[in-house]
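Holo model, flavin-adenine dinucleotide. Inputs:
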Amino acid sequence: MQLDGKIPAGPLKDKWDRHRFELKLVNPANKRRYDIIVVGTGLAGGAAAASLAELGYNVKNFCIQDSPRRAHSIAAQGGINAAKNYTNEGDSIWRLFYDTIKGGDFRAREGNVYRLAQVSNHIIDHCVAQGIPFARDYGGLLANRSFGGAQVSRTFYARGQTGQQLLLGAYGALCRQIAAGKVTMFPRREMLDLVVIDGKAKGIVARNLITGEVEKHAGDAVVLCTGGYGNVYFLSTNAMASNVTAAFRAHKRGAFFANPCFTQIHPTCIPVHGTYQSKLTLMSESLRNDGRVWVPKNSGDKRAPGDIPESERDYYLESKYPSFGNLVPRDVASRNAKEQCDMGKGVGETGLAVYLDFAEAIRRDGEEMIARKYGNLFQMYEKITGQNPYRTPMMIYPAVHYTMGGLWVDYNLMSNLEGLFVLGEANFSDHGANRLGASALMQGLADGYFVIPYTIGGYLTGESPGAVNADHPAFADVVQAVEERTRKLLSVKGKRTVDDFHRHLGLVMWDHCGMARTNEGLTRARETVRALRSEFWENVLVPGDSHDFNQSLERAGRVADFMEFAELMIVDALHRQESCGGHFNEAYQTEEGEAKRDDENFAYVAAWEFTGVGKDPELHKEDLTFENVQLTQRSYK
Amino acid sequence: MTQTINLTLKVWRQGGPGVKGRLDTYHAENISTDMSFLEMLDVVNESLTLDGKEPIAFDYDCREGICGQCGAVVNGRAHGPEKGTTLCQLHMRHFSNGDILVIEPFRARAFRVVKDLVVDRSPLDRIIQAGGYISVNAGGAPDANAAPVPQETAELAMDAAACIGCGACVASCPNASAMLFVGAKVSHLTLLPQGKPEAARRALSMVDTMDTLGFGNCSNERECEAECPKEISITNIARLNREFMKAGFFSNAR
Ligand SMILES: Cc1cc2nc3c(=O)[nH]c(=O)nc-3n(C[C@H](O)[C@H](O)[C@H](O)COP(=O)(O)OP(=O)(O)OC[C@H]3O[C@@H](n4cnc5c(N)ncnc54)[C@H](O)[C@@H]3O)c2cc1C
Ligand code: SF4
Ligand code: FES
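Output:
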C-alpha cells in the first residue's frame, strides 16, 4: 500500500495556515462532551493534555512515574531551538527548516518540518509567559547558544536544565487543568494495550502499578506521547522506565511502525564502567567546543594520559576533518570513536573510551573561564567517575540517545489507525534519519501545544462523543489478553532474571544494529534475537505476583516487548540497503567514510505492518518528495 | 582506582501502606566503588531474585539526579551523606569496607509508604495544583522579548526553579514541613514579572493546601537546606513568608 501523509497542497509557506483554516472546528460547547485519552506527561504529553483541556475537552492523562513532573523529558540538558533570529545572524524559519531537513539526511517530510520551524517561535513566547527561567543577557533579553549542525545561535536554554524547566512549565499548565477538573490524572499507570473498535482507537487498558489492577479507559480519541525506545539497547541515556510498550502494542493492534532502525548515538557520554551498570550519562556536546578528542597513536598503549607525549597522541578528528575538527556531527564523531577503539586504541580500563582533553583550553583561557562554561558538567563527571577533568582528560564514549523512528503518522499526527494520534519522540515524523541537537524539545512542545489542539478537532467532528464506553465487549477481550500475558510472565519461574535478558538483548543490538551495521551482522542478530526471545518465555524469572507493586513484573513486560520490537528494527535495517544519518551500513559509504544515501531507491518512509510475532512484517512506503530543497551529500572535511 | 567493598544493609521492608514494617539485614558483597548507590541495590535485588526472595522496592527513573523520583534515608540522612547529591548520584566510593547502612523510606505524616522504600509523594503535586503555575493558555503570549528580565533576577528564579520535587526536605524536617519546596516554587514564579499578577493568591493557596495535607510548620531547623540535593536556599522560605504576609495584609485574594 502506498501511504498518504496528507500533506496539504500549495506553497510550503502556506500549507499550515491553509490547513488550519480548512480543518473543521468542534463547536466550543461541544468540546466538553468529548473525552480524550493522553498517554504520557513528557513535553509532548504534558503540553497536549494541558492545551486540549484549555480548549474545553475532558482529558484523562496517564504516566508511569509517581508524578507527571518526572517524565524523561526532565533530563534534557542542552536547549531548545527556535527561529527567532534574536542574534541578528540571519536565522529564519526557512533556515531552521533547511538545517533540520539536511541534518535528517533528507529522510523527513518537507511539510512537517516547515510547520515545526514555523511554530518554534510561538513555543518560546509561550514558555516565557509560563515563567520558564531561560538564560538572559545583561540587558535582560533572552540569550542563545549554538548547537551542532547549525551555523547560527538559535538555542534557548536554562542552564544545563532546559528539559527540566520546560517540562515543569508544561506540568504547571497541566496542574492548573487538574485543579480546574478538566484533566483527570492517572500517575503510576502503565498502558498495556490499545482498544480498537471498528478500526478506530477508542480506549486503552492500563495497569495500576500500585495495586496491580487492570483498568479500562474509554475515550473518543487516544493520544500517545510515550517517548522513545532507546532502552531496547539496555544501556542508553534514557530514563529507566523509557520503553516501547505502548507504541508496540498499538503496532500489534494495527498501527504502522515507521523507520524503526533510525537511532541516534551520542558521541559524548561517560563510558561504561562495569557489568552492573544500569544506564549511561550524557555529557553535553557543547564540551566539544573546547575539548580535543584523542587516543594514543599506538594500540595497546596503557600509559596514563599525562605520560603520553604530544608526538604519540592521535587527534584523529582534527587530522581527518580539518575544517570541522572536533565539531563534526554526532554520527560522524560517534563512528570515529568506535573505529579507534576497534583498532585497539581505546583507553581506560575497558578500552572502550577516548580522551576529551581540556588542557589546551585551560592553558589558553584559564581554569576560571572553563569552569564558568562547563563547571556543572565537570562536577557531574567527577561525581560519577571520581576523576577531576581539570587535571586529567575526560574519558568519553558514544551511547544510544534518541530514536528517530516511531509510529507512522500523517500531517495531522494521526496514525493509520483512525483516532490514534502520536506525538513527540514516539512518532517518526520530523527528524528523518538523524535529529539535530535541541530539536526534540522543540518538536515535543510543537506537537503538544500547537499542532494537536487543531488537528484533533478535524477528526472529532466526524465522531459522535461518547459513542463507546468501557462496558463495550472489546474492552473485556483486551483486559483478558493483558491478564493472560501477565500470568504467563509470572508462571515461567525460570532461572534468568529480567535484567539479565535485557542486558543480553542490548548487547546484541549494540553490536549489530548500533553505530555501524553489516548485512551479515544483522542477519545473525535476527537469529540471536529470536533464540533469546524463545529462551525468555521459557526461562525468565519474575518474582512476586500481579496484585501488588511489582517492579520486576513491570520490567518483564517491557523487556518482552523489546524482544519482539528488536526484530522489527533489524528487519528495517536489513531492508534499507543504503546508509543515511543514524543508519550506517558499512557497505554503503563514500570514500570519506560518510553515510552514502541511495535517493533513487530509498527516498521513502518505511512503515511496517505487524503480521504476527516472528513473521515478516509487511512494508508500506510513503514516498518523500522534495520540492523545495536540493538533495546533497554531506561532507565535513 | 576501582575497589570492591562488602557492606551490611539494614533495609526497611514493608508490604504495603497499612502493614507493619521492619528492618531486614542483607549482605552486599563485592560492591565496586564505581557503582552508584542504586546500582548497589540492583545487585542486591538480582541476588534476592535468584534466591527466590522478593527484591527491595525502591523508586528511580532518570538516575541522573534530575527527575526527583529516587530517594531514601541512609544512616539518618535523606539521599545519604554527600552534600548536594541525590541517591542515584551517590557513588559507593564514599563508603568503606565493612560499613553498616540503615536504609529507610522518606518518612512524613503526609507521605504514605507504598512499599519498602517507596512512598506516596502526591501531596507535593496537590500543592502545585493549588497555584504553583502562571495561568496562561497556549496561544496568546506576546513576543518572548517583550518584557526584559534583569539577568540577576532570572538567575535567582532559576536557582529556585531547580527544585526536583523529591521531598527530601520534608523527610529531613523535624516537623515534616514542605516549606522549602513551596518556598522554591513561590520564589521562582514571584521573582519573574510574568508571575506577579497571581503572587498573592498563589502564596495563600499553596500554604493553605500544604497545611491541609498534613505537612508541619517551619521552625527554622534548617535541616531541609542541609539535605536538599539541589541546595535550594532557605532564603526562599523567607521570601515565601514575605509573600504570604503581604498577601494576607494587603490583598483581598483570600
Ligand atoms: C540525557 C538526554 C538529554 C537530552 N537533551 C536534549 C536537549 O538538550 N534538547 C533536545 O531537544 N532534546 C534533548 N533530548 C531528547 C528529548 O529529551 C526527548 O526526545 C524528549 O524529551 C521526549 O519527550 P516526549 O514527551 O516525547 O517523551 P518522554 O519525555 O519520554 O515522556 C514519555 C511519557 O510517557 C509515559 N509513558 C511511557 N510509556 C508509557 C506506558 N506504557 N503507559 C503510560 N505511560 C507511559 C512516561 O511515563 C512519560 O510520562 C535529550 C534526551 C536525553 C536522554
Ligand atoms: S526543595 Fe530540595 S529537597 Fe525539597 S523537594 Fe525540592 S529539591 Fe527536593
Ligand atoms: S533517579 Fe532521578 S533523581 Fe534520582
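Chain B has a mean pLDDT of 96. The CA atoms of residues 58 and 99 of chain B lie 21 Å apart.
Archived with the compound record.
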